[in-house]
Design a protein that fits this description.
This protein is mainly alpha-helical and 92 residues long. Helix content is 60%, strand content 0%. It starts with 28 loop residues before the first helix and ends in a 9-residue tail after the last helix.
């Protein structure tokens, strides 16, 4: 009769996964090579993704610089146009 305390042990297999012949334990060279290839593919994919993101960032920084320069030049030009005809050219 199985007691309530040890009832959960009856669901376990009769042998443990790590028991067996020594050659059945551990990873094979093929398994390790497949793991390395998968990890390499994932790393190269993430590198390509982040390199593309860096290019987009650099482009956006350049566009922002151009926009800021245009805004500053339009502001200066509008000040000069407002001051035209008042004789206060040097005061703008």
């Amino acid at each position: 009769m199985v007691t309530a305390r040890c009832r959960w042990l009856s669901h376990w297999p009769s042998h443990w996964p790590w028991e067996g012949r020594p050659r059945d334990r551990g990873l094979t060279l093929v398994e390790l090579m497949v793991t390395v290839v998968i990890a390499g593919l994932m790393m190269s994919g993430s590198f390509v993704f982040f390199a593309g993101q860096r290019r987009v960032y650099d482009t956006q920084v350049k566009v922002l610089g151009v926009q800021q320069n245009l805004w500053a030049s339009m502001e200066a030009l509008s000040r000069f146009v407002r001051a035209a005809g008042t004789g206060m050219v040097g005061c703008v």
